[in-house]
Write a structure and sequence with these properties.
about 40% helix; alpha/beta; 7-stranded parallel β-sheet; 8 helices
Length: about 250
């Protein structure tokens, strides 16, 4: 792959915005498209990143709506690289989790992400070139109290994309996942109810079966963005099906 269009889905906040800022600096991004559901923050980000040598466009998309996903792919099908960082979070004790809670999270974090990747894969296969990276979570492999919906959706997303990759990788389209641990974003602050501060979160909590982070730090969106950019880049041309943990060693590499 040479330079071309990079799309970042879920770019309004947090990790998605950090990815957009990172890929905007890469020589392989000649055009940047930021997509998501929060229009005002995306337009602000586009104004920040737009340069004479880098056109930046904003596209509204709702990953819970299949027709909205189809419209996004149709409008930006030339993309050589796509990062999918969109997602929602909800928490409830497992014994109290409702079907509605699970379905609402699955609609975006599993179905929305998968069908976005599927749509772009079809376009990329026609050129036999492309790279897709989705933002997962260590919750998809590592049980977390209160995260039935979120953990199940991330686990399903991870496996669905790996199976999609079985079809796409032989045809020139790589698919990978980046799975952060605790990362300082708006979404992560929803996890803070049981922790007085970030230091406490990094230290772990045996009552909630949350281990300490070995490097004693909560991650930053820029660190996740760097990993996503690497997996999108030509430097990772021989990497596919991979799930890269960015967790300070919390999962002990399991």
């Amino acid at each position: 792959m040479t330079s071309g269009t990079t799309v970042v889905v879920g770019a309004a906040h947090g990790i998605g915005a950090a990815i957009a800022r990172r890929v905007a600096r890469e020589t392989w991004t000649s055009k940047l498209i930021i997509a998501g559901i929060s229009d005002a923050p995306m337009h602000s980000l586009a104004s920040e990143l737009r340069r004479d040598d880098l056109p930046v466009e904003v596209v509204h998309v709702d990953l819970a709506d299949q027709s909205s996903i189809a419209a996004l792919v149709a409008a930006t099908g030339e993309a050589e690289r796509v990062a999918i960082a969109a997602g929602i979070y909800t928490s409830a004790p497992a014994l109290e989790t409702t079907r509605e809670q699970i379905e609402s999270v699955m609609a975006i974090n599993l179905f929305g992400v998968f069908f976005t990747a599927q749509g772009y894969s079809r376009e990329m296969i026609s050129r036999r070139s492309g790279s897709i990276v989705a933002i997962g979570s260590i919750s998809g492999r590592f049980p977390r109290m209160g995260q039935v919906a979120y953990g199940a959706a991330k686990a399903g997303m991870r496996q669905a994309l790996r199976i999609l990759a079985l079809d796409t990788v032989p045809l020139g389209v790589r698919i990978n996942v980046v799975s952060p641990g605790p990362t300082e974003t708006e979404m992560m602050h929803k996890l803070m109810a049981d922790h007085p501060d970030l230091k406490n979160l990094a230290a772990g909590n045996l009552d909630s079966f949350r281990p300490a982070v070995p490097d004693a730090n909560v991650g930053r969106p820029e660190q996740v963005a760097a990993a996503a950019a690497f997996l999108l880049s030509p430097d990772s041309a021989h990497i596919a099906f991979h799930d890269l943990y960015i967790d300070g060693g919390e999962t002990l590499g399991i």
